[in-house]
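@channel sequence for tomorrow's demo:
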Amino acid sequence: MTKRALVLAGGGIAGIAWETGVLRGIADESPAAAEALLNADVIVGTSAGSTVAGQLGSGLGIDALFDRQLAVESGEIDSGVSIEAISELFITAMSAPDLGVAEKLQRIGQIALTTPTVTEEVRRAVIAARLPVHDWPQRELRITAIDTATGELVVFDRSSGVPIVDAVAASCAVPGVWPPVTIGARRLMDGGVGSTVNMAVAADCDAVVALVPSGRNSPSPFGSGAVAEVDTFPAPTLGIFADDEALAAFGTNPLDPACRVPSATAGRAQGRRVAAEVASFLG
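C-alpha cells (generated this afternoon):
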C-alpha cells in the first residue's frame, strides 16, 4: 500500500492562508483528490505549515478552516518586522564559508535568543488561537523546529510528550521576530530556518505532495532552497509552488496579518487550477 505524505512548508501568515486556500480550491474541483490529501498518512508541517497541519488535525473541515482565514477578526499580531530584515539576517548568518550548517544555525539561534520580542506567553496565546483543538490528533502529524543551541532539527509528534500548541509555537518562532520556545531544557526556534520544507522528514513515504508558499524562481537564503529539495526527493513528488497571482497577493511582507485574506483567496484560485494535476498524481 502506498504511504502518502502532505508536506506543508513555511511562509509566514501568507503561507498559512495560501496553503489553506489551495486545499479549499482543490476541494472545489476534485473532492476526491482533496480528501486524499487531507487524509494523507503523514502530514509534515514546518513553520506556517505546522499551523496548517495542526488545523487539519483538529477535525474541522477545510471549508470551515478556509472561512477562518477570511474572518475579519483574528488573533494575529503584527511584529513590525519585515521579511526583508529576516532574510538579510539569514543570509548574513548562512554565508560564512568557514562554518558548517549546524554552526550557522547556532549563529541564528543566538540572534533569536538575544533579540527583544514579545514574551513567550503572548506569542503562545496567538498560536493557541490559531488551533481549533489543543490535543494531538490520532494520526501521523510531524512538526519541525530547530534547537537554538545545537542547530539540530527536532521533529515533534503525538508521542513526544509535548503539547501541540508548544510544538507549533516552536516551529513558528521566526528568529528576530518571535521568541524561541522553551520546551524542557531546550530553546527552540522556527523549523524553517534550515529548510522551509524539510522533505527528509517524509523520507519513509512513497508519494509526496508539497505545498510551498514561494515561487519556483524565488531567491532563497537556504542554499539550493525548496525547489531542489522537492525536485530531488527520491519518492514521486508533486511540488505546488505559489504562482505569480499568489505571490502578488502575499504583498511585500508575508508576516503582515493584512495579507491573510488576499493570500487565502489567491490560494483557492490556484488550488482550482492545479486540482486536475493533483488528482492525476494521486491516481
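heads up for whoever presents: The mean pLDDT is 94.
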